[in-house]
Design goal:
The structure is a single chain. The two termini are 73 Å apart. The protein has helices at 25-29, 32-36, 68-75, 123-133; strands at 2-4, 7-11, 17-20, 80-87, 98-103, 114-117, 138-142, 145-150, 159-166. The radius of gyration is 37 Å and the shape is rod-shaped. The chain has a 3-stranded antiparallel sheet with strand order 1-2-3, with no helix packed on it. It has 4 helices and 9 strands, in the order βββαααβββαβββ.
Length: 167
């Protein structure tokens, strides 16, 4: 390494020359205030509507996820699942308490569903479905099936039902 007018000249093994300008800490700090002018202050922030990319962590008010499924998991939120099946008239057992088991693929034995009959736009048919629904005393769940019970009389018409489960 050689020095020329305050500059250090360095030549590597490959013959490449480098000119080094020695600076002090004072040189680095000088002008720093001017460079920082116009930069974000400590209290700088953005409105939530300004965020248009990335994943905002839960600790900062986000979901910490890029998909709805992952967001529900991260936040511990429940997911609603719906099923529609029919309780066919011909499937009730012959003696009271009457019962039948219907396949509901995906329902779990641990589910505690909300169940109601599904009515059509036909008033007369809807009245028959409501009367039949009134015969159903309870419904239990098992893996991929439900069992409906009628303690007194069994329904005279098929009952379309909707099952909603929140997990």
């Amino acid at each position: 390494m050689t020095e020329h007018e305050g500059l250090q000249i360095y030549k590597d093994a490959g013959g490449n020359c480098y000119i080094l300008y020695p600076i002090t800490k004072a040189h680095l700090v000088e002008g720093l205030d001017e460079l920082l002018d116009g930069k974000a202050a400590d209290g700088h922030n953005h409105a939530a509507g300004d965020i248009n990319s990335g994943v905002l962590p839960v600790a900062r008010g986000g979901t910490g996820a890029a998909t709805a499924e992952q967001a529900r998991t991260n936040l511990g939120a429940a997911k609603a699942v719906s099923y529609t099946v029919t309780l066919p008239t011909a499937s009730w057992s012959s003696s009271a308490p009457h019962s039948m088991t219907v396949t509901v693929t995906g329902i779990l034995a641990t589910d505690e569903p909300i169940i109601d009959c599904v009515l059509s736009g036909d008033t007369a048919a809807s009245k028959l479905i409501l009367e039949a629904w009134g015969c159903v005393s309870r419904i239990t769940t098992a893996a991929n099936s439900i069992t409906a019970y009628c303690y007194d009389k069994k329904p005279a018409v098929n009952i379309p039902i909707k099952i909603k489960v929140v997990r």
